[in-house]
Amino acid sequence: MAGREVAVTAALALLSAAIALYGPPLRSVLRRTFSLHKAQSVEDMENFFQLVRNIVPAPTLKKHKGQDGQIGVVGGCQEYTGAPYFAAISALKVGADLSHVFCAREAAPVIKSYSPELIVHPVLDSLSAVEEVQKWLPRLHVLIVGPGLGRDDQLLSNVRGIVEASKARDIPLVIDADGLWLIAQQPALIQGYQKAILTPNKMEFSRLWEAVIGGPVDDRDHRGSVLRLSQALGNVTVVQKGEQDLISNGQQVLACSQEGSSRRCGGQGDLLSGSLGPMVHWALLAGPEKTNGSSPLLVAAWGACTLTRQCNHQAFQKHGRSTTTTDMISEVGAAFSKLFET
Ligand SMILES: NC(=O)C1=CN([C@@H]2O[C@H](COP(=O)(O)OP(=O)(O)OC[C@H]3O[C@@H](n4cnc5c(N)ncnc54)[C@H](O)[C@@H]3O)[C@@H](O)[C@H]2O)[C@@H](O)CC1
Ligand SMILES: Nc1ncnc2c1ncn2[C@@H]1O[C@H](COP(=O)(O)OP(=O)(O)OP(=O)(O)O)[C@@H](O)[C@H]1O
Ligand SMILES: [Mg+2]
Q: Could you tell which of 264, 312, 328, 331 is best to mutate to test the pocket of ligand 2, judged by most ligand atoms within 8 Å of the CB?
């Protein structure tokens, strides 16, 4: 054998030995780097499907009502009654057992009339709003703050008190819509709270960025931007919705590109924040063992984004341009089974 061939054979043998020895840790480092800087591989996507499947509670006859999730939605005012309804009914359709809405007095009869399945509390604009909601906090697993809340100062001041009371009880918070308006006014309210998930659309993301970092968002680096905002907020989980949903806890950035459709009717974001309610409860209950070391909130967020986009896809197949959020909500059961129960 020529000297050159011997060298090549020896090098290959060395490389095989190194891969055998260091392959698994090397792959894990590569995977982390990969998910930080590049789109996820198909293998990573499969992993996340599996992680979501791991957190979904197994069907059993042994449970009592409430164990699979008691979710509260804080929102609903004179103008907006659809958004809190969409969020609260989505939480139920995904699998929560009970769904409460804490709204302004005028919104309550309207929301109740949409659905007998929701428990509606007309307390949000009362002088004792914080105490009224506080009474229910011991029973709630997750609070979704903001869908259809509006921007009335008195209402927002009450919601500030509710957020503080929830933090004091370590209750996970999903903050969306006008809840994000409040956070943009007072970022300290959520700074460093590890059980918070913010779900901004494009406008809401720009407002948060302006408030927390300042200046315009760098549109050439969406991944870097979501990572930076999460870090600046003290590693609060941020879900930036858009053509791709980008999810970060300040350490990792995940992308969700599940096929949806071209239809962007109002209320899709409410379906997302509502479905996050039970997903967050299940992920935290399952713990890092079931999420294979990944942050439970990242797994919950990826699951809810994937589900919302699949609902959009299925509804669009049936209804085309007339697709509305109600059509998407009708798809939750089938979409969930297809994605997470195979
Ligand atoms: N049926 C209902 O009751 C609904 C009520 N909603 C509520 O309406 C309130 C305000 O929410 P908005 O999302 O309108 O608040 P924003 O103030 O964040 O959005 C305002 C405007 O931004 C524009 N915009 C959206 N995406 C954009 C993009 N990619 N580039 C440039 N402009 C863009 C929208 O057209 C909208 O006019 C919230 O309380 C929300 O929950 C919505 O959830 C939709 C459904
Ligand atoms: N360009 C897009 N292509 C595909 N899916 C998208 C696109 N933009 C948003 N979505 C999906 O739609 C859902 C809602 O995002 P959107 O940005 O519409 O929220 P929103 O503005 O808060 O909605 P809402 O009307 O409920 O307030 C998310 O799950 C997101 O993945
Ligand atoms: Mg919204």
A: 264
